[in-house]
TrEMBL record:
It comes from the Bacteria. It comes from Streptomyces griseochromogenes. This is Peptidoglycan binding-like domain-containing protein. InterPro entries: Peptidoglycan-bd-like, PGBD-like_sf, PGBDSf. Residues 22-76 form the Peptidoglycan binding-like domain.
Amino acid sequence: MIVAGGLPATEQLIVGHTRRSDLVGLWQSVLWADGYSTRSGITCTYDEATADATRVWQSNHHLSADGIVGSVTWGAAAQRIAFSGQWIVYQGERFGLPLRLDGDDVYEVWDTGRFRRLRTDAVTLTRCR
């Protein structure tokens, strides 16, 4: 499945229940952009380390710190999205995370010098392969 039209607020990321995907890589990139994880923590696997960083992120954003990335957590992250010309940027506390919507209204993420379509059912990001 390709993530289209807005952040994937219906997708939940849960340890032990979430398959490896670009969507997990996107969330890990949000954690990195906000300073809650290192760049090497972007693995596209929703593991305990990611859940722990998520709990801290949730607590610091006044959310229930359950380590599950659901609609409330996605919604809080979406508050940091800004439009910048053709790009959309997640304005992290430390770094910006460039995104864009392609002609089919599908999210693409910046990955090693080019944009790639964001998938929920596969890992296509170079960083995660």
